[in-house]
């Protein structure tokens, strides 16, 4: 290489530094779009993957929700009630409340298919020899099964226990006795006590019985007024036990299509009481508090 050529090469390497900087800047600017394109591709790929995962999760959640069964509860056995004033025969009423109107006094109810009551008052006035007073009340309460509260017979069981407890804790009661009653519904309890009032000494009998999802409560009391002899508590107890069996039979009949149902239909309940209807009841703690 000639001296002149070498000199020109050296001069070329020592050219203006600004020219070199311009060249480097152009190279850097060319690299930036490539980096942005690579980043965008990477971001799109991740977003697509996330969307797919989210969609799969949502689908799985929807399938899981739709697969969950709706909560259910066993339907109550009895769907209707008899008219409370028709639960007892004329003969039975003649034994318990001989001087009462056989039609009875209907209690108020906002839903006769769920609750009802009827009462009878009897006064056998013997003038100066005194009088015999008797009072009878029959109340019926039916419980439907409910997904939140539970099965109808379980709800009736709870109410039955409360009725017995209320009778045992009646205000002013003396000589309270509680006994199970067999052959009446699925379970039955009789609570007996003495009650002193200004009119005389009353012998109270409260019998609570449950048949399936229906609770029947009979309140029966008697007193000798104006010097008349106080009635026998054992006699009153025998009468109310017989009446309770008849009332339970009326409830069952109302749910077989052959009874006088207060719901206005054939009922749709069981065709006969459950086998446990003849079992003795274990004494739970009480019955309704009545005046």
At a glance:
Helices cover about 35% and strands about 25% of the residues. It is α+β, with helices and mostly antiparallel strands and about 290 residues long.
Would you write up a description of this structure?
The chain is α+β, with helices and mostly antiparallel strands and 291 residues long. The protein folds into two domains: 3-67; 84-278, no CATH class. 37% of the residues lie in helices and 23% in strands. It contains five helices and seven strands. Strands 1-2-3-7-6-5-4 form a seven-stranded antiparallel beta sheet. Helix 3 packs antiparallel against helix 5. The radius of gyration is 44 Å and the shape is elongated. The N and C termini lie far apart (137 Å). The model is unreliable at 1-15, 29-43 and 263-291 (pLDDT under 50).
Chain-wise SSE layout:
Layout: H1 3-13, H2 17-67, H3 90-96, E1 105-106, E2 115-125, E3 131-142, H4 152-168, E4 173-180, E5 187-197, E6 200-211, E7 214-225, H5 233-254
Antiparallel strand pairs: 1-2, 2-3, 3-7, 4-5, 5-6, 6-7
List keywords for this structure.
5 helices, 291 residues, alpha+beta, seven-stranded antiparallel beta sheet, disordered C terminus
**Rg from alpha-carbon coordinates:** 44 Å
For the termini, the CA-CA separation is 137 Å
The count of β-strands is 7
Mean pLDDT: 78
Number of domains: 2
Separate helix tally: 5
Class computed from helices, strands and strand pairing:
alpha+beta
- What sort of overall outline do the alpha carbons produce when their principal axes are compared? elongated
Main beta-sheet strand count, sense and barrel state: 7 strands, antiparallel
- Give the percentage of residues in beta strands: 15-25%
Low-confidence stretches: 1-15, 29-43, 263-291
Along the chain, the helix and strand elements come as: HHHEEEHEEEEH
* Proportion of residues in helical segments: 25-40%
- Main sheet: strand order: 1-2-3-7-6-5-4
